[in-house]
Amino acid sequence: MLLLVLFGLSLSAAFAQPSRDWFLKFSDMIRDNKVDDAFFETEEAQQDPKYKDYLNTPGMGDGSFTSLQWAAKMGSKSWTVDALIDNGGDPTLAHEGTLTTPAMFAAREGNSRTLASILSKIDSPEAELSKVDEHGNTALHLAALTTGNAMAATAMFKSTPDHAFALIENGNGNTALQVASFYDSSGSFVSTMLSDDKVRKSINKPAPNGRTALHLAVSHGVKDVVEILLKSGAKLDDVAIKIAADKGHEELEEFLKGVRGEL
Question: Does the predicted model carry a pTM greater than 0.85?
Answer without folding.
Answer: yes
